[in-house]
């Protein structure tokens, strides 16, 4: 195990490959995310961007390469069974994951959704967990919803609670897997606002998104993925306005067109 | 109908009904542990273990309960397995209902959206902790309802243990018919008692179901 210094990248991927049967969805991805930086990953459906994000959290098991979180290797082919289970549970406590479909726990109140992990995994007392939970709900603007159940929240509110839940473990990095894709258009902004605030607090973030304007606005670095490879990466300004690659240009043009069509229908 | 006779035999039938409840409750209790073990075996990392659990379930589901009872009670001694009738009824009942119940439990667990498992694992919960804190609380409602249906079948199937001379409700009814020659009265009364038992089971199931799914209407 290596010792992390402040120059150690927060997340590092080396030659990551992933296959689903015969289909290679990640064809050797290299990526470095410095601490406090925000990386956006864009690309068409099926480009492998979600798989990439899920691999970092080991929700997808990679076939080749290595993934490091703050200098600690995430995938450990040398560990088997329970030893690996303990290792990965520990690693995951340092990563917050936000899902497209929120995946809030419907049998728990909003506050309990946020405090369950710190109570059970960190042994936090009910009192301090409550304090932490309320503070986080406050931060996402939902302190008044602490005692209600997820079924009575709007999509935007659910996603904000899901962000608070992920933050409750004090993660080193936050992974957003199309966090606003399932939301009605008018609810996207409130979630984006919470993410922006996190960015301002220098949380390290990897964001898989279809929100080009948001990605451009909030990220330090942007990547375009297609067909399992990183086609192009640069500063967001450059990637979104003046990309080098034809494939990137095509994707962005098509995306703009579909947005224009969507707007025309309103 | 001979009402006087019915009044007279009620205490005797009630005593036998208690045996029906007793044998069913015990079979359900032990069956639950057998079912849980089967669910665990079916998710084992080792293929032969998974296969064994599935084979067991197939055999139990593929043969009549009646035959299973006769096989264990009359065939068991040849293999050194000597059980008194009541114990035999409990054991065969438990192993029989356990196979069905394992499918009910598995179905309820699998009904929970896979996103719940992912969310829990992504927070750092292990497999068992996820089952305990996230999956079981959400599958409990469906599990209770399915097990409730099986409990009703178990109570009714318990009438079959009369064949190995356990003095439960049906056996007692047959004995009383032998001495009174009034099958209509005796069977009507015993049928009523089954209905009362089944309604009680349904009431308990509904109560537990509501408790388990309280969160859905809070």
TrEMBL record, chain B:
Record key words, sorted: Amino-acid transport, Cell membrane, Membrane, Transmembrane, Transmembrane helix, Transport
Membrane topology designation: Multi-pass membrane protein
Pfam families named in the record: BPD_transp_1 (PF00528)
Similarity annotation: Belongs to the binding-protein-dependent transport system permease family. HisMQ subfamily.
Keyword Membrane set for record: yes
Residue ranges of the TM segments: 16-41, 147-167, 187-209
Record protein name field: Amino acid ABC transporter permease
Keyword Transmembrane helix: yes
Taxonomic source organism: Billgrantia ethanolica
Domain ABC transmembrane type-1 residue range list: 17-205
Localization of this protein: Cell inner membrane; Cell membrane
PANTHER family found in the cross-reference section: L-CYSTINE TRANSPORT SYSTEM PERMEASE PROTEIN TCYL, MEMBRANE COMPONENT OF AMINO ACID ABC TRANSPORTER
């Amino acid at each position: 195990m290596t010792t992390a210094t402040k120059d150690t990248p927060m997340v590092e991927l080396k030659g990551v490959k992933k296959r689903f049967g015969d289909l290679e969805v990640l064809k050797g991805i290299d990526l470095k995310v410095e601490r406090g930086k925000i990386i956006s990953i864009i690309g068409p459906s099926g480009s492998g961007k979600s798989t990439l994000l899920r691999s970092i959290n080991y929700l997808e098991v990679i076939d080749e390469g290595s993934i490091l979180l703050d200098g600690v290797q995430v995938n450990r082919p040398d560990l088997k069974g329970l030893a690996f289970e303990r290792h990965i549970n520990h690693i995951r406590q340092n990563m917050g994951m936000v899902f497209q479909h929120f995946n809030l726990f419907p049998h728990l109140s909003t506050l309990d959704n946020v405090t369950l992990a710190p109570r059970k995994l960190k042994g936090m007392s009910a009192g301090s967990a409550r304090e932490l939970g309320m503070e986080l709900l406050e931060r996402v603007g939902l302190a008044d919803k602490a005692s209600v159940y997820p079924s009575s929240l709007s999509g935007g509110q659910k996603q904000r609670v899901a962000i608070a839940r992920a933050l409750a473990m004090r993660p080193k990095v936050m992974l957003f897997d199309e966090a606003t894709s399932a939301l009605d258009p008018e609810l996207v902004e409130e979630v984006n606002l919470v993410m922006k605030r996190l960015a301002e607090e220098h949380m390290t973030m990897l964001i898989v998104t279809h929100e080009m304007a948001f990605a451009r606005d909030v990220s330090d670095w942007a990547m375009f993925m297609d067909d399992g490879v990183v086609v192009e990466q640069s500063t967001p300004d450059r990637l979104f306005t003046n990309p080098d690659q034809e494939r990137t240009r095509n994707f962005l043009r098509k995306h703009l067109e579909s947005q224009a069509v969507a707007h025309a229908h309103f | 109908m001979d009402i006087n006779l019915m009044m007279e035999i009620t205490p005797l039938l009630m005593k036998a009904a208690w045996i029906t409840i007793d044998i069913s409750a015990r079979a359900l209790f032990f069956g639950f542990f057998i079912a849980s073990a089967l669910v665990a075996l079916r998710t084992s990392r080792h293929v032969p273990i998974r296969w064994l659990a599935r084979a067991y379930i197939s055999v139990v589901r593929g043969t009549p309960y009646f035959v299973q009872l006769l096989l264990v009670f009359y065939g068991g001694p040849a293999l050194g397995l000597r059980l008194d009738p009541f114990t035999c009824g409990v054991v065969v009942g438990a192993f029989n209902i356990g196979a069905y119940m394992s499918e009910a439990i598995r179905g309820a667990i699998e009904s929970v959206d896979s996103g719940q498992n992912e969310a829990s694992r992504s927070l750092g919960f292990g497999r068992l902790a996820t089952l305990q804190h996230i999956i079981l609380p959400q599958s409990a409602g469906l599990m209770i309802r399915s097990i409730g249906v099986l409990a009703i079948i178990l109570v009714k199937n318990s009438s079959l243990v009369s064949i190995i001379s356990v003095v439960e409700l049906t056996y007692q009814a047959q004995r009383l018919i032998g001495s009174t020659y009034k099958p209509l009265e005796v069977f009507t009364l015993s049928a009523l008692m089954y209905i009362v038992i089944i309604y009680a089971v349904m009431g308990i199931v509904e109560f537990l179901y509501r408790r388990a799914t309280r969160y859905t209407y809070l």
